[in-house]
Structure formats: structure tokens, C-alpha cells
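Complex record, two chains
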Amino acid sequence: MVIEGLLYTKDHEWARIDADVATIGITDYAQQMLGELVFVELPDMGKECAGHDELAVVESTKAANDIYSPVAGKVIEVNGELESQPELINKDCYNAGWICKLQITDTKSVESLMDSKRYEEYIGGY
Amino acid sequence: MPFISNTPQQQEQMLAEIGLTMDELFDDVPRELMAEAFDLPRGLSEQETRNRLMELAEKNATHLTCFLGGGFYDHFIPAAVHSIVSRSEFYTAYTPYQPELSQGVLQATYEYQSMICRLTEMEVANASLYDGGTALYEAMMMALRITDRNKVIVDDSVNPIYRVMIHSYTQNLKIELEQTHCEDGLTNRDQILRIIDDKTAAVIVQNPNFFGCIDEFSDIAEAAHDKGSLLIVSSYPVSLGILKTPAAMGADIVTGEGQSLGIPMSFGGPYLGFMASAKQYVRKMPGRIAGETLDISGQKAYVLTLQTREQHIRRDKATSNICSNEALCALTALVYLSLLGTEGLRETAQLCADKAKYAYKRLTAIPGVEPHFRGKWFFNEFVLDLPYEAADVIAKLIEKRFAAGFPLGRYYDGMENSILISVTEKRTKQEIGMLAEALESVL
């Protein structure tokens, strides 16, 4: 499932851009590939990152994967619910399973992201 | 290269195929690292080899009465330890990646971890590391990961061998290592409290420290926690039979050398590093952890848990490089502790302390022998000042069949005349008396 209106990365993160704030999560494709998630390491508040910096770690019973920042920005909010309920990402990766919010510091970094149509083609190619 | 089973003709053929000479093939190896010639002696027959090795083995001084400590101790090891550990089910067990085939070794590992937790009173322990020194290094790296800082304070009363190891591991990393200097036998808390700041990831201390003195770190733990830093305590497991535990002092990570738990002293190991921490840091902890769970039919079962942090899954971002660890040594410690039991370990520790106190009295009564740190509590080791260089005294006492102690001048400037003497439950009153007589005769 790919949602229209969101932007996507090749590493299977999504970003919902709302003015200068980007909400970040991982895609349905990613959560399916990882399987049941058991742990999410959230970024520290205030952490500053460039586009494609390590932001968080998600762990399933079989793998641990880095989540990269889709855009350059500063962490202004994290989804604390994930600490006790990492499975929210499996259940509802585009809404309740969001990971963090970034204050975008470089709007240019947004331009390189894929729209839903291109991302769909991208994962179709797997 | 005669050990490679291809012939010179085959080598030439292969070189011709890739269009290189032998020199060109090894061009990337710096000249100074290339052997000029191997110049090996002619091969020996089995009989000759055996004789040669016996000759070398006879150079080992295996008959000495041991008062040598410094992190590795001559404790009594019940014969049952070796018998149990040598069972082929344990002896040949490999990494238990497939829990359905490895319940025995996984349960043993789980029980080992539980015992380390009981000893230290910490919440979680891993399945062991290489030795006390690498465990301390891993604890430091763990603190750096937890705090995302790069300054570490270590007191020089921490085992100097461990400090050398930490230095070797970290010299090319961006870690600011600050050393405080122990002056009166106890950790230099004044200096630590002065330099600890909000960049400090951890303070590393040891109890009993390298000089054998017993310390209490609650104040340092409090100061560290105030700054968001961690307290790492290196400890001597046998001493925990009677001493206040690191957890009770507020330690965040506890490590130590597990050799004293049933593993014989040997030059270079294999030894056993143990590590325990507060539960909140378990995901940052290196090495394996065995966990207890329920299988699909609801029965108790054991697995390697939190594996995703490890290198076979997490690759270069793994929490450590531990792969084939000291599982058999950990098992040995488990068997030793099980045989001794709570009361046995307490008695062993008490005997060590009592006999050390007796030896201290007996040896300081010798004219010219003075205690180095007066009025300090010690566990089973203490420092004495001799009238001349300790290394020379020790050499003379080897002639008299004593490994009398460790010459502190080897690691501490100005302590050339100081000797570190260790007494375990194995030493008898008679042996202590004989050491005193031998020492008196060489002064």
C-alpha cells in the first residue's frame, strides 16, 4: 500500500510535508519485509541531521535496520508510543506508526524524494 | 611457500594466467613487513619433537608457592569442575544459533548470566566476553554509545593491564581518555569530581583496586549521574562473596575477570570477561544474551535473545565484535559457583581476607618491610615497601620456590621498591610463615 500525497525514499521511508515540518515513518512495503517489529530506537529530541543521516533503528525478530532522514532537519517531536508498542508500525505505518517529526532546515533536500507514483514503480521493480 | 600445496609449476601457470610475477602479486605488502627468508630448521620426528617440547616445558616454574595476584588468582578448583566441563556435550558445543538443538548450552549460559547478576546484584548480564580487560573496554564503548559523548575518566588504581588494553583499543578513536592518579590507596575522588563534566560518558573505577584496597563509590556514582555520566566498576568476583556489591554503590555497568571462578591461571588465558548492567541499557550491551521464554507448547525454553544487535545480523553496526566467545569458560564459572554455593563463596572470600590479614601482620613485622598504604582496608592483596627493588627481591625468592608477588615498579613510577602480595584460601599458615622467613633472609 502506497499513499498518495506522501513523499518516499529509496530506503523505504515516507515523509508527510506540512509547511516546514516533515513527519517521518517507514512504508508498508518496509514493514512487511521486516516482519513483526519488536523495538524502535527513537532519535533524541533536537538531533540535527542532513538528508540521509541515520535517524532511528527499527528491530524485528529477524533484522535491525537503520532509518535514514528523508530530509535535512532537526528532530522536534518523536512518537513515544512506539517505545512500548513498536507493533504500531506493523498495524498502521502511515498514521499511528509515525516515527518522528523534523523541522526542515534545507527545503532543497525535499526535492529529491519520490512521489507515490514513482515509489510504486520503484518497489514494483523489486 | 612450501605449506601451500601447489607446485612451483602450478604457481607459474597461475601467475602467467594473470600476467604477474610473484613479486608483483605481493606488491601491496610493505617491504619492511616481507620476510627476507624463513630459515626454518629441518623437520623433527615425533620423538624429537616430544623431547624438545618437554625440554621447553621444564623451563616453566610450576612448583612455586603463589602469592602473585594482580587480577588473576590462585584459587582452589574442585576436580569436579573439570570433570563436568569436559563432558563432550559441553566441550564441543558451538554457537547455539539453533535453539531447538542447543537447549543444554543455552540453559547453562542463562544460569551463568543469572549467577553473575546475583554476584553483582545488577539486573542483566551477558553470556561473557574475552577477559576482564576487554570487558572493561567494551563497557567503556557501551557507555559512549549510551551517552553519545566521548570523554572517559579512568583512575590509575584500575588494573594497569586493563588500562594498557583500553589504550591499545582506543588510541585511534576520537575518545578523550583522562586518567586520575591514586595517591593514598583509594580512587582519587577529589580529582574525579573536579574533572567530571557534561561531556563525560563514564567514570571507570575498580574494587578492590589494583593495590588491593577496598573502596566505596556511592559518592562518585552520584556525581556521575548528576552529569548524565555512567559509573563503570571493574570487580573481583570472589570478593563479592563478602564485599558490598557494585549495584549497591550505584554502578551502571559492572565488569570483571572471571578467572578466579574455577579457571586455572595460565599465561595469556583463556580467561573470562563478565559484564552486567542496569536493564535499561541491555540493547547497548555487547555480546550474546541467552533468554528464557516459552515454546509453542507452553514449555520453558531458552534462546539467544536480542540477536539483532549482533554482527551476524547488524554487520558493521553491531554492538561489538564478539563472535566465538568464552562459552566454555563461562560454563566453568557456572559449575564452580554451583559447586561452592552461596555459603561456599562467602567462606572462600572470608578465608582470603583473613589469611591476607595474617600475612600482612606477619610480613610487616619483618625489619625493613613497611606497608605502603597505611590504615587502608584491603581484601586479599596489599602493597609492601621493601628496602631495595622489588623485582630483585622477587627474583631471589623464585630461587626459594616462591612467586612472592608483583613488582609495582613495572607499571607505577616511584614504586620500584613496592611489591603487591596476594593471598588466597589455598595458602596455609605454614606457607605464609615460610614466605616470611624466605623474605627476611634475602633482605
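Note: The two ends of chain B are 55 Å apart (CA to CA).
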